[in-house]
Amino acid sequence: MVVAAVLALPLAATPSPAGAAPFPAGAAAPAAGRRVHDIQGAGHISPLNRAAVTGVPGVVTALTGNGFWMQDPRPDKSDATSEGIFVFTRTRPAATTGGAVQVGDAVRVNGRVSEFRPGGSKSAGLTRTEIDAGATTVDAHGAPLPPPVVIGPGGRRPPASVVRSAPGDAEKGGGFDPRRNGLDFHESVEGMRVRIENAVAVGPTRYGELPVLPANGAGAGTRTRRGGILLRDGDANPERIVLDDALAPLPGMNVGDRLPGANDGVVDYAFGDFKLLLTAAPRRADGGLARETTRPQRPGELAVATAGLDGLDPDAPPERFRALAGDVVEGLRSPDLIAISGLEDNSGPEDDGTVAADQTVAELIAAISTAGGPAYDWRSVTPRDNTDGGERGANTRLGFLFRTDRGLAFVDRPSAPDPLQDGPPAASPPDPATTPVRAVRRDGGAGLTLSPGRVDPGDAAWGAARKPLAGEVTWQGRRIIVIAGQWFPQSSDDQPLFGRFQPPSRPSGWRRDAQARVLARFVTSVRTADKNAHVIVAGDLNDRETSTPVRTLATDGGLTDLPAGLPAGERYTAISGGNGQALDHILLSPSLYRRKHEFDVVHRNAEFADRAGDRDPTVVRIDLPGK
């Protein structure tokens, strides 16, 4: 129950600073005591945490099902102390005097200050400072809302690169400097009314969130050629504002779309990020972004691509198959070979023991043909049930789609006794899912014992993860070893970028680093069999070109990572929270890198709200005429 607290001091007993919006004439004045900025303090944890407070004044700025935001119309002179706060009422906000709480009500709140941590006490995210309401009094209706803080040029500008300069737990010290640290800046406006003007989208609308830059991105960090913003070493772009639809719907937006004019909301924190909850639905202005199409390969050029299917199974809507087929035929111009990730078994997420994926593959190949593409074939290794990670029951796998009408042929080499092992042959053929492929000297060059075959599937690095798939192909008489990979993804064990621990720990990176070392050893074994071997590693490596795992693979395997050579404005295949980054890679051995080649990220998915998958496909065209 919400109990009204009746206070009878006259308004004149509490003087207003110059320029402050007063409470309506005739309203009972707040009792002498703590104000919102006293509760918020200049830090991530309230100096009054767990303390009881009475008569805290404010004007209601936004409502939700279990509380409301209010803001003090009489701010102090410090930008470091927020003037807004969330009042947690558990049920629909109401008071026993003055009726239901409404936006524009002048209220006084009794309660206890608390720090709510979304995700639970063990979460690495920050807390939201709030008042657990015990009593709310509505003194007057129709109070003017405190003016919003403008974020961006002409207002308060967040730091352009630094999230937090002091390492350690941000809630336990290290100073508090909103002028230099993005984490502290956003904390300093937590709970307040904020305005962004003429915002531009730097990521698509997804899961009810939309990352934007105010003022059409003026003064922001390194932008992409198509209007996004790049994640770089030492620059996580704290100037991004993440909009959330908790209070008002957001339109479907693509990168480069705009929100004209002013849009207001309240700042909240949830699950690893600060969010601006707009209080009215914004208007969308189309930025005109179009899906890219690469050029077709020329005679003598081998085209090898990557494509993530993001959990495709036979029950996916037909329009999704059509969109993915469009990526292959229109976007990639029907390359000779595609390293595929994210393809599920015939029953999708049903955990029914199914592991075969022939129906999924058949539907995809049929959709490509219907879209005007060539007749593709498929090779993969069927995993054991629920051993490769991902969604349980889905048995997501890697594979190769390839066409044979331009000079490419897949060398099929079924399971056979390992030539490097002593002893008599096995009584029955070994299981391809668990049998490691090995590089051997064959016909004067490097070949494989299995094709397709899995790279060291028993190594602990691949536990609950997709095992790399190696295949031996020929292109107009030249032998090529192609390896499809999908490394361990960034996971919930990784600490959030805008979390309490700085810099955030990312344990998933350790898994990828171990996987990089295993794969590099295999590539080295191929190049040991033939120092001039043609080797291509392609796929979803789930890490950036400057990361330790990708560099380990490139350096230890003697490979060159192609995304690293792109101009900065093109160097992204994925967008997370508005940050563009290259997570999908193609790497070449020296014998191929020396050939004339052309690498392209074909931007068709990551920037769009309506898309078939999360990632942009990539393609390399290598000038490799026949012998």
TrEMBL record:
<keyword id="KW-0732">Signal</keyword>
<dbReference type="GO" id="GO:0004527">
    <property type="term" value="F:exonuclease activity"/>
</dbReference>
<feature type="region of interest" description="Disordered">
    <location>
        <begin position="411"/>
        <end position="460"/>
    </location>
</feature>
<dbReference type="GO" id="GO:0004519">
    <property type="term" value="F:endonuclease activity"/>
</dbReference>
<protein>
    <submittedName>
        <fullName>Endonuclease/exonuclease/phosphatase</fullName>
    </submittedName>
</protein>
<dbReference type="InterPro" id="IPR036691">
    <property type="entry name" value="Endo/exonu/phosph_ase_sf"/>
</dbReference>
<keyword id="KW-0540">Nuclease</keyword>
<feature type="region of interest" description="Disordered">
    <location>
        <begin position="375"/>
        <end position="397"/>
    </location>
</feature>
<feature type="signal peptide">
    <location>
        <begin position="1"/>
        <end position="20"/>
    </location>
</feature>
<keyword id="KW-0378">Hydrolase</keyword>
<keyword id="KW-0269">Exonuclease</keyword>
<feature type="compositionally biased region" description="Basic and acidic residues">
    <location>
        <begin position="169"/>
        <end position="181"/>
    </location>
</feature>
<feature type="domain" description="Endonuclease/exonuclease/phosphatase">
    <location>
        <begin position="334"/>
        <end position="596"/>
    </location>
</feature>
<keyword id="KW-0255">Endonuclease</keyword>
<dbReference type="Pfam" id="PF03372">
    <property type="entry name" value="Exo_endo_phos"/>
</dbReference>
<feature type="region of interest" description="Disordered">
    <location>
        <begin position="150"/>
        <end position="181"/>
    </location>
</feature>
<dbReference type="InterPro" id="IPR005135">
    <property type="entry name" value="Endo/exonuclease/phosphatase"/>
</dbReference>
